[in-house]
């Protein structure tokens, strides 16, 4: 069984030995189930610990980290379903039912539609350390594309082991090169380690930026924070165009707040590429 990763950097890192790919940061393990009798893919399963440096004010894995794992696993499953072609994420919709996690988190990914131009996967997440308590449900849509010269050779079923703990871990803001700040605008610097094999910003990095930006925007509104602050929960993210140049700005508008819930619209722009909008979505931020 192979540990080849189609979402790994296209070229080896020779300048920075501490570089880790986005899914490695969250120590995401994944394995493909054997195909059924008809030869159809039977889905992918995953598992990720909840390391202390990835926890947020809600007590569990930051929702941006959860969304990163959803994007990685859903994209991986969709890609396997369309080989020898590959995919790129176009939308991610997630409902979060539990912010406090024991860990590890268990992921189940199933293809619910495979078309000529798109693939849709359904993803469920449970907290294995809390009696398989439900954590989140998501739907990921991917567009099918020609991988060009990228090598996509696998031994099936594919297995990717859980990466080891980091010896010198940093928080998500530092890893994802999100600049410190407050208020409605949050900026991310496009470090090369955040690019996917196509050279564009990883979908998980977009999700983490949206999480951090929405929380900062919510905190700027009086009366929206709880004793521990705020934490992002439900998310809808549309990937309109690739982020290629950077820096990247998430510009937020608070749409409303009631009963400890703040809804924030997040528009993400590639400042270095004529300031074009690349992503649009909404995040629900909870007082915790």
Tell me what you see in this structure.
The chain has 288 residues and is α+β, with helices and mostly antiparallel strands. The protein folds into 2 domains: 10-160, Roll (Thiol Ester Dehydrase, Chain A), CATH 3.10.129.10; 177-288, Hotdog Thioesterase (Thiol Ester Dehydrase, Chain A, Roll). The protein contains 4 helices and 12 strands. The chain has a 12-stranded antiparallel beta sheet, with helices on one face. The radius of gyration is 18 Å and the shape is globular.
What are the SSEs and their pairings?
Blueprint: H1 22-25, E1 29-32, E2 44-48, H2 63-82, E3 86-96, E4 105-114, E5 118-127, E6 133-145, E7 159-160, H3 172-175, E8 185-188, H4 203-219, E9 230-239, E10 248-258, E11 261-270, E12 276-287
Antiparallel strand pairs: 1-2, 1-7, 2-4, 3-6, 3-9, 4-5, 5-6, 8-10, 9-12, 10-11, 11-12
Q: And the CATH topology of the largest domain?
A: Thiol Ester Dehydrase, Chain A
Q: What's the SSE pattern?
A: HEEHEEEEEHEHEEEE
> How far is the first residue's CA from the last residue's CA?
43 Å
Task: Tell me the number of structural domains.
Answer: 2
Rg on CA atoms, Å? 18 Å
Give me the CATH superfamily of the largest domain: Hotdog Thioesterase
What structural category arises from helix and sheet content?
alpha+beta
CATH class of the largest domain: Alpha Beta
> Averaged pLDDT, please?
90
For the biggest sheet, the summary is:
12 strands, antiparallel
In DSSP terms, counting alpha (H) and pi (I) runs of 4 or more, how many helices?
A: 4
Strand residues, percent: 35-45%
Strand order of the largest sheet: 7-1-2-4-5-6-3-9-12-11-10-8
Shape: globular
Low-confidence stretches are: 1-20
CATH architectural name of the largest domain? Roll
Number of DSSP E strands: 12
Please estimate the helix content: 10-25%
């Amino acid at each position: 069984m192979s540990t080849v990763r189609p979402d790994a950097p296209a070229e080896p890192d020779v300048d920075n030995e501490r570089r880790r790919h986005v899914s490695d940061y969250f120590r995401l393990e994944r394995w493909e189930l054997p195909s059924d009798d008809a030869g159809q893919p039977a889905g992918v399963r995953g598992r990720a610990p909840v390391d202390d440096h990835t926890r947020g004010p809600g007590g569990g894995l930051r929702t941006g980290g959860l969304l990163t794992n959803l994007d990685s696993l859903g994209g991986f499953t969709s890609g396997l379903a369309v080989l020898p072609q590959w995919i790129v994420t176009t939308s991610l919709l997630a409902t979060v039912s539990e912010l406090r996690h024991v860990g590890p988190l268990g992921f189940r990914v199933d293809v619910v539609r495979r078309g000529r131009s798109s693939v849709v996967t359904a993803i469920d997440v449970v907290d294995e350390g809390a009696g398989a308590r439900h954590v989140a449900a998501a739907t990921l849509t991917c567009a099918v594309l020609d991988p060009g010269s990228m090598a996509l050779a696998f031994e099936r079923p594919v297995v990717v082991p859980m990466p080891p703990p980091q010896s010198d871990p940093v928080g998500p803001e530092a890893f994802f090169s999100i600049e410190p700040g407050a208020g409605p605008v949050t900026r991310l610097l496009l470090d090369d380690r955040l690019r996917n094999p196509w050279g564009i910003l990883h979908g998980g990095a977009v999700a983490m930026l949206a999480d951090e930006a929405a929380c900062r925007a919510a905190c700027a509104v009086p009366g929206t924070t709880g004793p521990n602050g705020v934490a992002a929960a439900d998310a809808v993210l549309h990937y309109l165009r690739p982020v290629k140049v950077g820096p990247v700005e998430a510009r937020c508008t608070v749409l409303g707040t009631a009963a400890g819930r703040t809804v924030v619209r997040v528009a993400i722009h590639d400042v270095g590429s004529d300031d074009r909008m690349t992503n649009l979505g909404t995040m629900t931020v909870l007082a915790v």
